[in-house]
Design a protein that fits this description.
alpha+beta, Alpha-Beta Plaits, rod-shaped, binds guanosine-5'-triphosphate, diguanylate cyclase activity, EC 2.7.7.65, dCache_1, Diguanylate_Cyclase
Length: 494
């Protein structure tokens, strides 16, 4: 196979290997990533968010159920009703009563508003008169007119530096069923807010309550989703504008939505006691950052390993190829280049000589009567002579000369920068040396003479013509008695 083809095949093989390694590694990494992502998503939707929702809901319930009971008892309290029916003469007993309730039950505030006098009593005494035209007092008139026995309302508490407070507003009736006022207790939402803050900070999720109009009613002290504050409509929070419209009816359940390209998971729970919805919202960016980082790391390791494997394969292939090339271009017996090796070097030498207008001579050397030597002493003896002769021949040459075992007992030399006169001197030296040498084998000193044909390169020569001329010179040397050097000069073709 030509060298260029073998290089191309090698490159294709390496590319294929690279593609296989990369696709294999990448596939396992990506599959691993998607499996982990699905598991994380599943965990968020089915475990994390519902669990947070359950915890917050039970906290709310714990905070609300007891105050509802206390408020209910206050609304049925005979002392309270008798005091009102007796004309609210002295505020001291009702103040003491409200203080007692507040302290005993650990409420944040306790109150009674009289329908007859519109006076707002609380544990510290008379707070004010409620007025229909005062926005802060709207709640009282709403409670008065509502059907239900009580409501839960979240408002700032004027008596306590406007702290956000959950009020249980219970209607009070006299013994004939006439409405005589509203009583109840208030509790701060501090515990719930703290809990929300804790969840928001620790678990990177937004927790907030939304009323049926889509208004954010309660969230952590540091704000809710995307920095939204209590009182804000969800539709006015940049990124959440479309959220409410996406929630199907009834609104409880698990939802998914996108905010500025980020995927969100949302658990919504209806809280009947408050008539609010509890939203627990988590965007997957943070949750997936870890496994995405792992994926990138995996891919990097894959690329490095693939590169390393490829480098090792490339080095091994190169080494093997060099070995094969050496094998294919070297004669095993003498270690000299064979014809293939010679052709690679000779073509280049001829070109150089022609380009540089420098002389170049060819010597074709043949061992004399070698068949006889083989027949007399055996093939192994012949081999030994070939090896020894090649060794001696090599030691007579310069580094730049090209030597080759041309055939059985034939050798060829190309002498660079050497004209025919110098070549003749060298040929004579080789002939004399081989005539004088002996090669010991099995106790016998083997001897062999050589016949040499020489010729000098001409501008019009090809390699074949140069060798053919050297061959003719060698033929003459053989014909004229062997153990001699003959020269053939260039003759233009007719
Ligand atoms: N031992 C050995 N013999 C070889 C090898 N290659 C070729 N020969 C032998 O070399 C001999 C060459 O014989 P011929 O071509 O007849 O030439 P020759 O006997 O040298 O006679 P002239 O060339 O005319 O002097 C043959 O017998 C080949 O078998 C080899 O690698 N080892």
């Amino acid at each position: 196979m030509p060298l260029s083809h073998s290089r191309k095949a090698q490159s294709i093989l390496l590319l294929l290997l690279l593609a296989l390694l990369l696709s294999g590694f990448a596939a396992t990494s990506v599959i691993g990533y998607y499996t982990s992502r699905d598991s994380i998503r599943h965990n968020i939707v089915n475990t994390e968010l519902p669990l947070t929702s359950d915890n917050i809901y039970s906290e709310i319930q714990k905070d609300l159920v007891r105050p509802i009971l206390i408020s209910s008892m206050m609304s049925r309290d005979t002392f309270l009703r008798d005091w009102v029916l007796a004309g609210e003469q002295d505020p001291t007993p009702i103040t003491r009563y409200l203080l007692e309730v507040q302290e005993h039950y650990g409420a944040y505030t306790s109150f009674f508003i009289s329908e007859k006098t519109h006076t707002y009593y609380q544990a510290k005494g008379v707070l004010k008169q409620v007025r229909e035209d005062e926005p802060r007092d709207v709640w009282y008139f709403r409670v008065r007119d509502m059907q239900d026995a009580y409501e839960i309302n979240v408002d700032p508490d004027m008596a306590n530096r406007d702290q956000l407070t959950i009020f249980i507003n219970y209607k009070v009736f006299d013994y004939s069923g006439n409405f005589i006022g509203v009583t109840g207790v208030g509790l701060t939402v501090d515990a719930v807010v703290k809990l929300i803050d804790d969840y928001q900070q620790r678990y990177e999720r937004s927790v907030y309550f939304v009323d049926s109009d889509g208004r954010l009613m309660l969230t952590g002290a540091e704000g809710g989703p995307l920095g939204a504050k209590a009182g804000q409509l969800l539709s006015s929070v940049a990124g959440l504008e479309a959220l409410r419209a996406k929630l199907p009816q009834p609104k409880s359940g698990n939802f998914k939505y996108q905010e500025h390209g980020r995927g969100h998971f949302l658990n919504v729970r209806f809280i009947p006691e408050l008539d609010w919805y509890l939203f627990v919202d988590k965007h997957e960016e943070g949750a997936l950052a870890g496994i995405r980082h792992t994926l990138y790391l995996n891919l990097l390791i894959c690329a490095l390993i693939s590169g390393l494997v490829l480098l090792l394969v490339y080095l091994a292939m190169r080494r093997y190829q060099r070995f094969i090339t050496t094998l294919a271009t070297t004669d095993v017996l003498t270690g000299l280049p064979n014809r293939r090796g010679f052709n690679l070097l000779a073509g280049q030498a001829l070109q150089e000589a022609k380009r540089n207008q420098s002389p170049l001579s060819a010597l074709l050397i043949d061992l004399d009567l070698f068949k006889q030597l083989n027949d007399t002493h055996g093939h192994l003896a012949g081999d030994e002579v070939l090896r020894g002769f090649a060794h001696n021949l090599q030691s007579n040459l310069r580094q730049s000369d090209i030597i080759c075992r041309w055939g059985g007992e034939e050798f060829i030399l190309l002498l660079k920068d050497t004209g025919s006169s110098t070549a003749r001197l060298l040929a004579e030296k080789i002939r004399e040396q081989s005539d004088a040498s002996s090669f010991p084998f099995n106790g016998v000193n083997l001897r062999v003479s050589t016949s040499i044909g020489i010729t000098e390169l001409h501008d019009e020569d090809t390699l074949d013509r140069l060798i053919a001329r050297a061959d003719r010179a060698l033929y003459r040397a053989k014909q004229s008695g062997r153990n001699r050097v003959c020269e053939e000069t260039f003759e233009p073709q007719a």
